[in-house]
Amino acid sequence: MFSEKTKAALGVLIIVALFVLSSYFVRTNIEAIKSFIGDPSLGILIYIIITIFAIVFAPVSMMPLIPVASNIFGWVQTGFINVIGWFIGSIIVFFISRKYGVSLIKKFISLDKITKLESKIPEDKMFVSILLLRMTVPIDILSYALGLFSKVKFKTYAIATFLGIIPFSFVFSYLGVLPVWYQVIGFLVIGFVIALIIEYWKK
Length: 203
Hints:
The chain is mostly helical. Helix content is 78%, strand content 0%.
């Protein structure tokens, strides 16, 4: 059996591979895809809905769709769209967690992951912790953890969440329009930055 770290690493590699493959596919079939989507406004709305769904139902990842959106709508616009979708999804998860608690949340995501994460969040540095964690931890898991167990105020949660998701929202959107090798290098750099953030947060 694989360890939790090994499973997590494999999961990340699979998502990165799907991201790269998706980017290659959409660039080689861009006109056909644009024709299939039709009205860009409708496409943006559907993308936002999918993004929110992926946040609320934690096992689902929408990362492979980012290159599709970036190449169709442009990477800057996709960055803004990601922020909107991720933020709304995070707010929904927060309120679901606060209102319905463990009995409902355990159907969506592993409670062990949430408990481990929540235990590492110092209450006296809640805002900074959320801000940094937003750059390193999947949005859905952190939202569930904070909604279920922490005493963070909604205003603190909302502001830190909004600011924390902005950087990688635009970084991933930009990666989606780059050639494959630049994407690989980009993900390596992102991994290094995340490692630095985690080390800083542990101090």
